[in-house]
DNA sequence: GTGCGAAGGTAATACGTATGACGTGGCGGC
DNA sequence: GCCGCCACGTCATACGTATTACCTTCGCAC
């Protein structure tokens, strides 16, 4: 009968009649030929019998690494970031790494009292420098859709191309006065959107909002009740766009008749409301970033890919768009029996 | 200048001119009066100066615990589970615990090759027994909306009450033939929904579907093209309901005129499409479960709360319902400057 | 002066693993 | 017969922390 404390490699050694070092050598599989097959069999049998699993804490201490990656994002509740997580976690798992999520501290610049575990690397959505301080030491880092001019490797979306397509689309429809429901987060990708918009549209009014339905509703209401009401609302995120859509409806405005609305990300929300939006391959972002980080950990120089961002035209701008039924980016479904 | 390797407590000791044990005693704060204030000051100053952070791996090994909790869920991309995560992570952080997510392995019953870190406890959505095997040892566990008759403590929703309200609502509207878009997952809470439905509605036809937009669309299409088409579709999840809604629209059916549709969870999706749904306080589920787990870890017996599940009536069943603007359960928004 | 407790510190150890430094037989070559 | 080498194991150690047991010094009562 097993004791109430998990068996250690020493226990396995005793059971197999060998030394602890032998157990370690056999089970790590890194020492081919170092131990006779006969002995190896005994060790493996004993380990199996006792249900031995190496103690991760001890291994981490000994090896000085944890095979754990931290994903730093504003919030996991945004479907976009959830998809990023999925992509990253999948690649991580394939390479024997774990992924822990760390969502931004409530007070920006607050002390970074991250997870208890040490980490080998970090995937981070743009964040204040201050947040990065307080780490035990500089850590290999890949940024997510962040400043490509920065020093850290990064995986980007072609935001500028997407904004070109988007503003072109709106211009074709005759929209010249545009309201921008901007994400109230100091993140490169959002600044990029604002800049691209300002560069191409002469007449932009902006309202900032935290990324949520309610704040989007409020910001859009402010924009739509101006005396010089914009004819189109560009939102930095699908969630904000849903808030904007509801705000328009609540004001008795027709979409897209009275006001066109666009989102960003192309999560299921956009599909549901037939929102014109920019499709961002979020899952791929996570996966590519994780691959880059693995490169970094292996001493290789990771590529800095730019992933395509595709304009998806739906009824919230163009009433004649076909009724789509599965055009959004949906994470691969999982079933368990 | 700090070396390229992070400072250890020994380094701090050397810098402060004391022994390593003293450093540990001072910084842990568990030995009031054991060290003179004068010495303590020196130690703290040295630690600050060197930027000392204790090595988590060493601490975990020494203490035999990790202050890390694992959250086991089918997928993080479902907004419902993301909210659960948020609630759990918040409580965990308040108590100095970390939370790691583990999503179900692709093959059910596959080996549980969980995270590399050892964990102190587990929060789990219902899962196959087999998945629990392969852990290093039995681990304190709180279940999420799972069989209350089971041995593990659990936090539940009042699903039965919700289904009573829901079926009552549909009956009031004259619906007697109901299609059930059931989640194709072997999870207690979904079985519970099916059972409650069958018990109260004489005429139910069921189609099973993995939880996703596409599968919901397909399952609903099958139901709506039957010769004996149901007048209402009850979906186990908002995502499925969105698929069902689109399926109805694609078939040229009016919602709720030709077919009523209900979801489950009350995520933003339901709000967006004006779906009648059952509001589940997901964030609270995560938070309460985590509190229960902390009880367990402290040797206390956790309560087994039953959280209310509230029927939210919107236009997908009742055209006269008011146009809601913020009635869904939205996680607290975060902003970073 | 002796005993003795308290205050304030240090040495030593254990946690469980991985690995570099050592045996130790056996066998072939000269 | 001796040396060297190979095959196969074991010993010892280090990773960085928390804690137990110990040691020294000092003040004070008797």
Total E-strand runs of chain A: 12
- Which pair of protein chains has the largest interface, and what are the residue counts? A-B, 77 and 76 residues
Instruction: Assign the CATH superfamily of the largest domain in chain A.
Output: Response regulator
Q: In sequence order, what are the helices and strands of chain A, one letter per element? A: HHHHEHEEHEEHEHEHEHEHEHEE
Quaternary assembly: homodimer
Q: First CA to last CA of chain A: what distance?
A: 32 Å
Mean pLDDT of chain A: 87
The Rg value of chain A, from CA coordinates, equals: 26 Å
Tell me the major beta sheet of chain A. Answer: 6 strands, parallel
Strand portion of chain A: 15-25%
Outline of the structure:
The structure is a homodimer of 337-residue chains. With 337 residues, chain A is of the alpha/beta class.
Short key terms for the protein model shown above:
Rossmann fold; DNA-binding; LacI/GalR-like_sensor (chains A, B); 12 strands; 337 residues; alpha/beta; 6-stranded parallel β-sheet; 4-stranded parallel β-sheet; Lambda_DNA-bd_dom_sf (chains A, B); homodimer; transcription (chains A, B); 3 domains; 12 helices
Please characterize this protein's 3D structure.
Chain A has 337 residues and is α/β, with parallel strands linked by helices. The first copy, chain A, folds into three domains: 9-54, 434 Repressor (Amino-terminal Domain), CATH 1.10.260; 68-157 and 284-305, Response regulator (Rossmann fold), CATH 3.40.50.2300; 159-281, Response regulator (Rossmann fold), CATH 3.40.50.2300. Chain A contains twelve helices and twelve strands. Chain A has helices at residues 9-16, 20-28, 37-50, 56-63, 79-94, 129-132, 159-172, 188-200, 213-224, 238-250, 268-273, 282-297; strands at 68-73, 98-103, 121-125, 141-144, 154-157, 177-183, 203-209, 232-235, 260-262, 277-279, 306-307, 310-312. In chain A, the strands form three sheets. Chain A has a six-stranded parallel β-sheet with strand order 2-1-3-4-5-11, with helices on one face. A four-stranded parallel β-sheet of chain A has the order 7-6-8-9, sandwiched between helices. In chain A, helix 10 links the parallel strand 8 and strand 9 (260-262). In chain A, helix 1 crosses helix 3 and helix 7 runs parallel beside helix 8. The first copy, chain A, is elongated. Chains A and B meet through helix 4, helix 5, strand 2, helix 9 and helix 10 of A and helix 4, helix 5, strand 2, helix 9 and helix 10 of B. Chains A, B: It comes from Actinocorallia libanotica. Chains A, B: Residues 7-63 form the HTH lacI-type domain. Chains A, B: This is LacI family DNA-binding transcriptional regulator. Chains A, B: Keywords: DNA-binding, Transcription, Transcription regulation.
